[in-house]
């Protein structure tokens, strides 16, 4: 287009109008149009405050932290990393955290699917039920921890009932250990998983399952062959989000966990490095490692997601 | 599980206390093409979903010969269904979409493959068999949906407005395609549409529904020439509906007067002298006479429609007439409008209000019920749409050359 316009400009006045008037006009307009077509125009300036915000409050601290992790007091640039991995007390926190967060995220996603599946349609009391399922978001970790201690603790209702009925001879330990933290993560993570899965499910055209039914598919086959494949990319995304939430668990690991032993998660290690030993490079190292582990898990899940069908979930036109 | 006849007995479906479909009784014979016709919200899709097993009945029953069917879940009925939005599985290729039903039947792999390829060939999509539905055009998606439904050789094929998402030209092509498949595969088809032209051209028998109630069941010719009441007439292209009063009654012809005119027509249903009536006539059954004969009127709008023109004329009393003619009247011409008494149908106005209530309709549907002889397949059914087309001018403009060319 532009190439065909430029020759008359170079070759002098060929049209009715003089070349001087004609040539600068199209060129200037063309450049602005070309930029606009790529989404570059003056409205882009509206992004500036947000970009500045991200730069100052995220990129800079992040870069500073990464830089800090390479400046330990002793042992060269990788000294802090070597120290972390050579000390089992530190190193094992990765495994401890994964052992908590992976099953919890998996359970949250898995439990959300059937509940959301049943709640797709319209029915009476749907709003109430959704509210009840989502309320834990508003509670906060501390309140949840307190509730767990009251309910599942050694003298809590759950154990008192077990003892009263005679199902157990001594209180079942469900708090201040792995399970206490696990329950806490599940309770706080479930609403996110549920809301996400519900919205993904609602996006799947209900006539697809009806079509499958007329083709002879029973409910399990309809779910297995139609709904699940269309939902799977959404489940992968949901898993990533709930996993990240669970991986950075901190308060409940202390409140309802066993912070010196079985639930000494990686964020506790970072906290200790920073505010107990004042070893900032080590704390930064642990923070960087947290991010790396999360990235690895997310990359694995998204890699699997890339193999799935991720297009439209509508049944066709209309 | 094929059947000799499929019976719907008093099929009723209500939503939240409101009857969407009331007492639908219908017998579908093997090999028939039945169209359920009516304006949107008339209950035709509800009827289809009840038949497919996607909606439970509120009352009534469905019988396949002597087997009760309405208690059988959709996946066990063995009916094929084509959805309005096609409902193709977006994550499966055309081939896997078509094979889905066969795989659900646990047929041997070789047979699944053979029948899938055969069905794809039938709808001429061989080159697109490996594509996902999202990569196909609307017409191709439509054909996949049809192939997927017929590959199982179902006892009954249900189609829910399958052509409504296509453009006018493609709609005509697919219409012929559907009729061709119906005949060549020996299918039994129940087809839902709001397009009277589509229904007339495709179906052996039509069921006209209004507000969930059957208005008339009959062959295309019966519906075209003898609508049972003025609602059906309105829907079948009788665009000129005049509210008049009967002067005489009881005879084979009836004189109707009012709004400054006096016409002779044929009564449909009980018309007594002095009763309020609705007189209906198609635009193409009106003819232009000299300005002082019959009903004088002034030409207000002339629309070009190929060989003919559609004329809108208004009488001195303000009554508007729509007519089609091969003459070319000019704007503002004074014309006379004449009508053959046999073509002016005079219907009783069941209730004083323009919109008659459901109670009035139930009596009518009782009268017009299941009577008509279903075995007569109207020979003129394929010619019907061109005549019946006056309704929407855009449709007709497209229909005219295509219809003329192919027939």
Write the layout of secondary structure elements.
The complex is a heterodimer of chains A (318) and B (407).
Chain A: H1 2-11, H2 19-22, H3 24-37, H4 48-69, H5 79-86, H6 88-118, H7 126-134, H8 136-139, H9 141-152, H10 157-165, H11 178-202, H12 206-214, H13 219-247, H14 251-255, H15 266-275, H16 280-306
Chain B: E1 5-15, E2 18-29, E3 33-37, H1 44-52, E4 59-64, E5 67-68, H2 74-77, E6 80-82, H3 94-104, H4 109-122, H5 138-150, E7 157-160, H6 168-185, E8 189-193, H7 196-202, E9 205-210, E10 213-218, H8 220-225, H9 230-235, E11 240-246, E12 254-258, E13 261-267, E14 276-281, E15 286-289, E16 295-305, E17 308-314, E18 320-325, E19 334-339, E20 345-348, H10 358-368, H11 384-388, H12 393-406
Parallel strand pairs in B: 3-8, 3-9, 6-7, 7-8, 13-20
Antiparallel strand pairs in B: 1-2, 1-4, 4-5, 9-10, 11-12, 11-14, 12-13, 14-20, 15-19, 16-17, 16-19, 17-18
Helix pairs in contact in B: 3-4, 3-5
| Average pLDDT figure of chain A | 86
The residue-averaged pLDDT of chain B reads 82
Which fold name corresponds to the CATH topology of the largest domain in chain B? Rossmann fold
Number of strands of chain B: 20
CATH class of the largest domain in chain A: Mainly Alpha
Description:
The complex is a heterodimer of chains A (318) and B (407). Chain A is mainly α. Chain A contains 16 helices and no strands. Chain A folds into 2 domains: 2-40, no CATH class; 71-306, Orthogonal Bundle (MetI-like fold). Chain A has helices at 2-11, 19-22, 24-37, 48-69, 79-86, 88-118, 126-134, 136-139, 141-152, 157-165, 178-202, 206-214, 219-247, 251-255, 266-275, 280-306. Helices cover 72% and strands 0% of the residues of chain A. Chain B has 407 residues and is an alpha+beta fold. Residues 351-407 of chain B have low confidence and may be disordered.
């Amino acid at each position: 287009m532009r190439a065909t316009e430029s020759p008359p400009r170079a070759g002098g006045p060929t049209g009715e109008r003089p070349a001087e008037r004609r040539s600068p006009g199209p060129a200037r307009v063309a450049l602005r149009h070309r930029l606009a077509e790529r989404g570059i125009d003056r409205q882009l300036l509206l992004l500036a405050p947000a970009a500045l915000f991200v730069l100052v409050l995220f990129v800079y601290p992040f870069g500073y932290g990464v830089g800090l992790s390479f400046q330990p007091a002793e042992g060269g640039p990788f000294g802090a990393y070597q120290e972390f991995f050579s000390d089992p007390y530190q190193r094992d926190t990765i495994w401890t955290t994964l052992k908590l967060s992976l099953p919890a995220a998996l359970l949250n996603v898995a439990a959300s699917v059937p509940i959301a599946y049943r709640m797709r349609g319209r029915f009476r009391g749907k709003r109430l039920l959704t509210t009840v399922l989502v309320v834990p978001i508003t509670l906060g970790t501390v309140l949840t921890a307190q509730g767990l201690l009251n309910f599942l603790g050694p003298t809590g209702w759950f154990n008192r009932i077990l003892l009263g009925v005679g199902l157990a001879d001594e209180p079942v330990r469900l708090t201040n250990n792995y399970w206490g933290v696990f329950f806490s993560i599940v309770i706080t993570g479930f609403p996110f998983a549920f809301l996400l899965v519900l919205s993904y499910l609602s996006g799947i055209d209900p006539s697809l399952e009806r079509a499958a039914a007329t083709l002879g598919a029973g409910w399990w086959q309809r779910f297995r062959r139609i709904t699940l494949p269309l939902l799977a990319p959404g489940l992968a995304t949901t898993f990533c989000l709930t996993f990240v939430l669970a991986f950075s668990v901190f308060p409940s690991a202390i409140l309802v966990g066993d912070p010196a032993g079985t639930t000494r998660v990686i964020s506790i290690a970072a906290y200790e490095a920073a505010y107990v030993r004042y070893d900032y490079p080590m704390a930064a190292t642990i923070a960087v490692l947290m991010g790396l582990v999360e990235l690895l898990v997310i990359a694995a899940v998204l890699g699997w997601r890339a193999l799935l069908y991720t297009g439209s979930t509508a049944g066709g036109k209309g | 599980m094929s059947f000799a006849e499929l019976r719907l007995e008093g099929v009723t479906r209500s939503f939240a206390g409101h009857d969407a479909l009331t007492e639908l009784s219908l017998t579908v014979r093997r090999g028939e093409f039945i169209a359920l016709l009516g304006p949107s919200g008339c209950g035709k899709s509800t009827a289809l979903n009840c038949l497919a097993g996607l909606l439970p009945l509120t009352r009534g029953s469905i019988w396949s010969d002597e087997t009760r069917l309405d208690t059988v879940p959709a996946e066990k009925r063995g009916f094929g269904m084509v959805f309005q939005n096609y409902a193709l599985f977006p994550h499966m290729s055309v081939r896997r979409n078509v094979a889905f039903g066969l795989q659900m039947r646990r047929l041997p792999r070789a047979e699944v493959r053979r029948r899938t390829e055969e069905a794809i060939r039938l709808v001429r999509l061989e080159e697109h068999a490996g594509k996902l539905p999202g990569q196909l055009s609307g017409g191709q998606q439509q054909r996949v949906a049809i192939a997927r439904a017929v590959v199982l050789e179902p006892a009954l094929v249900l189609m829910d407005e399958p052509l409504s998402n296509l453009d006018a030209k493609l709609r005509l092509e697919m219409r012929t395609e559907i009729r061709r498949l119906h005949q060549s595969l020996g299918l039994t088809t129940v087809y839902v549409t709001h397009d009277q032209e589509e229904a007339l051209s495709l179906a052996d028998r039509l069921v006209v529904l209004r507000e969930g109630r059957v208005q008339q069941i009959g062959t295309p010719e019966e519906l075209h020439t003898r609508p049972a009441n003025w609602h059906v007439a309105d829907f079948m292209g009788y665009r000129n509906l005049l509210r008049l009063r009967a002067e005489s009654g009881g005879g084979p012809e009836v004189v109707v007067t009012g709004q400054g005119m006096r016409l002779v027509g044929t009564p449909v249903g009980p018309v007594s002298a002095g009763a309020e009536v609705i007189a209906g006539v198609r635009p193409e059954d009106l003819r232009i006479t000299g300005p002082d004969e019959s009903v004088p009127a002034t030409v207000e709008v002339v629309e070009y429609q190929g060989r003919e023109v559609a004329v809108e004329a208004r009488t001195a009393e303000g009554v508007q007439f729509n007519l089609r003619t091969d003459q070319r009247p000019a704007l503002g011409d004074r014309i006379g409008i004449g009508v053959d008494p046999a073509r002016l149908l005079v219907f009783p106005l069941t209730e004083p209000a323009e919109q008659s209530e459901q109670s009035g309709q139930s009596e009518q549907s009782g009268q017009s019920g299941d009577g008509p002889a279903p075995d007569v397949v109207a020979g003129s059914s394929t010619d019907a749409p061109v005549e019946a087309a006056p309704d929407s001018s855009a449709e007709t403009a497209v229909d005219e050359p295509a219809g003329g060319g192919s027939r």
